Amino acid sequence: MDDRIFQSICAGCGRAVPARYICAEGRVYIEKHCQEHGDSRALAAESAEDFDRWFASTSVTVPPRVPITKGTRGVFSNGTINTECPAHCGPCENHLMTACCVLLNVTRRCNQRCHYCFAEATNSLDAPPDDNSDPSLSEIAQWLDRLIELGEERKFNIQISGGEPTVRPDLPEIIRLCADKGFEYIQLNTNGRKLAESAAYAETLKSAGLTTVFLQFDGTDDTVYKRLRGESLFAVKKTAIENCASAKLPVTLVPTILKSVNLSSVGEIVGFMLNNLHVVKGVHFQPASFFGRRPDERNANGDFDERVTMFAVMGEIEKQMEGRIKKSDLAPITTGHPLCCFCAAYIKEPNGALRSLSSGGSCCSSNDAAELRFDPLEIIRRDRDFVLNKWSTPLSCCSETPPSSLRGGEPFSPTRQSSVQSALSVSPHTPSFDEAIAIFKANTFTISGMAFMDETNLDAERLRRCRVQVFTPDERLVPFCGYYTCQ
């Protein structure tokens, strides 16, 4: 058990307070005390054994090349809490990791009124017709120039976010601007409504330089969407994914998970991905964090009854997938804090079996091979015989050619012909390197998750290792959880 004292904040007043992790009845909690508001607890792990095993992992440290703000050394100075941290975050010279993914919030407007919204977005129907609160293209260009100055040898991954970015008619120009300035990985954080309207729109975004769609996808049942989003949306999600498939635009499913709403549906969500690998290349689970707009239902300890930890999500994935994805396959990223993320990569074989390729990966993208802790080309070189043997049968469960309609989250079945396999099925020779890469690309996927913090469970040490940061109009890079909790 990690018995250190660290800095958190009081959920009642926002002041910095000391906190620690404690074990009670086999569970782990973050416990803190405020002189004005008393004691509070928030769940950190359903199992102390899981918590200890996770903390045994090692982390790499790569501090930001350019600190933006000035901080005091460490969380505590002469036994006194640094009350500026994390509200002044920039990051300062005390940060241990540079950013990997940077969010650009290009609007506060949205075309939904979700019950849960970390950004507290304003529905676009409520905004006046002459609303000019969105940053201009010239402002966004200045942001990107500053990010180039702050960046590392490899430019930051960019996530275009909001609000709902697709309410901006100039979104293709924003994407093109990012691509023209040399950002290689451009991700769109979206609810998918606009993408569902037209396949041509998805093609336009792809042509502009969009790399992947980070799609709000809470389940395969409209009951879930009514609870979380206030309306039936599953048909919208499916149409959006179909349109992305037509545009050959990869999709990552991003479910917000609450205990009584859709924790029991994680297996169906993974099953939906496995049945649609021609377009869906990953699932990135996000246990709900209780900042922004949300029902304020707290228990006697001051925590939220609907809280789910990433450990519970991993356990349910293994259980609901009947062991085809194992909890032991999933691991922290090597460059972040162990309590923030989990990730693993897999290849789906023709008979539906899932073969683990790695034990960790990216904190911000569940299908960015450059960030995964494995070398795809080395795997292909090493396992060329494996590729030949597995894909030499007449049928494959994966296809590069999108089917006429998406398949649901039911258990997957190896019944679809593979265009890649058809070129290999009768060949007595080892597949060419290009063919092996095509097989690998068509059949690989990732499972990942990120546990964001809120006012009840914030740990300033986790902020110091944050890899997902928000770029602010005053040109700071603020850790995601600190931005939405403390700014």
Task: Name its key features.
487 residues; alpha/beta; twelve-stranded mixed beta sheet; four-stranded antiparallel beta sheet; 20 strands
Can you summarize this structure?
With 487 residues, this protein is of the alpha/beta class. It has 15 helices and 20 strands. Residues 73-79, 359-374, 392-404 and 412-428 have low confidence and may be disordered.
Give structural notes.
The protein has helices at residues 48-55, 137-150, 171-180, 193-197, 199-208, 222-228, 234-246, 266-274, 310-320, 376-382, 384-390, 419-422, 433-443, 460-464, 480-486; strands spanning 5-9, 16-24, 27-34, 38-45, 76-77, 80-81, 101-105, 109-110, 122-123, 157-161, 186-190, 212-216, 251-254, 256-257, 280-287, 341-348, 354-356, 444-450, 468-471, 477-479. A hairpin with a 2-residue loop joins strand 5 (76-77) and strand 6. The chain has 487 residues and is of the alpha/beta class. Helix 2 runs parallel beside helix 3 (171-180), helix 8 (266-274) packs across helix 9 and helix 10 packs across helix 13. The model is unreliable at 73-79, 359-374, 392-404 and 412-428 (pLDDT under 50).
